[in-house]
Write a structure and sequence with these properties.
alpha+beta, 2 domains, eight-stranded mixed β-sheet, two-stranded antiparallel ribbon, 10 helices, 14 strands, 17% strand
Length: 389
């Protein structure tokens, strides 16, 4: 059985704790030849063994699609723990070496016939990225590696916990950054990018009735949570008035008319319900997540009634919202959701059930007080049928 050596340029870094790290680059497709996954499991004596979770196939598929896209980049290093068979040989060059780091070559024994337990390295962090590179339809993909040498599984486990227990980026920060990116992202973030762009217009454009009212990392004093606005926009983009202005095939989205509708509607809301506007959510359910999402469905319904008008005007929105003023309890009183279903104004919560209840109530009231004045619309033919979503 012949064992080959992989020799790679590397930097040795000695940290103040006395620990030593090695940094180098290697083709990601080669990593599985010298580093294995230590899967977490229970042995027959019930002792815990290993530390890595199973591969998440959907996550690997997302990364693989990104790697196979145009101009992918993975700047963050994977972490590998080596045993003492891996050696670092210093390059004698006093001009480039400094006190805590030195240049050299790292030598890694590689045996394609060796089973996982016999390999000199174990992947501490980055198994999904490595699996995606392994499976990707590309010839090579160099990746950065940070490594340390230890024969103790305990130390590998400790580093695994430390690396994977760091606090993730706040979602609000990610969403605020999304409109300024063009790269291929995960499916979830790709879907969020365009709504985040519309949110940025609403929060930062001078004519916007919501200017400065949406709470984001750069606007922490905003009244309305960014996620509530994103949900409202998402719903309309999926099956509401904003969907009408989505681009077909390669055609661009009609952002101008989307923004116009959002501006006109929320400007009308601020005027019709001015007593409940610009208050903290604890003082007004109009500014609360349930209110924002529920009103979004009402925006879609009003726009449907005025479908002949490409973008309903602020005046049209005001005329259709005004009859609802008397049946809304945004800041006091009770919501009358039907026999035995009177709910105090501030007991409406940002839950799926409460959002559905409030949205259906608003839509039924709108149909009874406004839509019923017009000739019967087939989409709303049953006066007693709640408008579920």
């Amino acid at each position: 059985m012949s064992v080959k050596e992989l020799r790679l340029p590397a930097i040795e870094v000695k940290q103040s704790s006395g620990k030593t790290l090695y940094s180098f680059a290697v083709d990601g497709k080669l990593i599985s030849s010298f580093a294995a996954i230590s899967r977490i499991k229970r042995e027959e004596d019930d002792e815990l063994s290993g530390y890595q979770r199973p591969e998440v196939l959907s996550h690997i598929a997302e990364i693989r699609r990104y790697i196979e896209s145009d101009s992918p980049m993975i700047p963050n290093a994977v972490v590998i723990a080596f045993d003492s068979r891996v050696k670092f040989i210093e390059t004698q060059n006093e001009e480039t070496n400094i006190g805590y780091s030195r240049f050299g070559t790292i030598t890694i024994p590689v045996d394609s016939e060796e089973n996982n337990q016999g390999k000199p390295g174990f992947i501490v962090d980055g198994q999904q990225r490595i699996a995606a590179i392994r499976d990707a339809d590309i010839s090579a993909f160099p990746i950065c590696v940070t490594a340390f040498v230890t024969n103790e599984v305990r130390e590998q486990t400790e580093q695994f916990i430390l690396v994977n227990s760091t606090k993730p980026l706040p979602k609000g920060l990610i969403y605020e950054l999304l409109p300024n990116t063009d790269a291929t992202l995960s499916t979830h973030l790709q879907r969020r990018r365009f709504p985040a762009r519309l949110l940025a217009y609403l929060n930062n454009s001078e004519p916007s009735p919501l200017k400065g009212l949406i709470q984001t990392p750069t606007n922490p004093n905003g009244k309305i949570k960014d996620n509530s606005i994103l949900k409202m926009i998402d719903n309309s983009l999926s099956d509401g008035v904003l969907y009408r202005f989505r681009g077909i095939e390669d055609a661009p989205d009609d952002e101008e008319n989307m923004i116009k509708i959002l501006f006109n509607f929320w400007s009308a809301v601020s005027k019709v319900f001015k007593e409940a506007w610009n208050l903290p959510p604890r003082e007004s359910r109009l500014m609360h997540g349930a209110g924002v999402v529920g009103m979004g469905f009402l925006m879609d319904a009003i726009s449907e009634r005025h479908r002949k008008t490409k973008t309903p005007t602020e005046e049209q929105f005001i005329n259709d919202l005004t009859p609802l003023k008397e049946v809304c309890s945004w800041t006091n009183g009770y919501w009358d959701f039907g026999p035995g279903r009177q709910v105090k104004w501030n007991e409406i919560q940002n839950t799926t059930r409460d959002i559905q209840t409030l949205a259906n109530y608003l839509l039924v009231q709108y149909k009874a007080l406004v839509w019923s004045r017009e000739p019967r619309n087939p989409a709303y033919s049953n006066q007693n049928q709640p408008l579920m979503f």
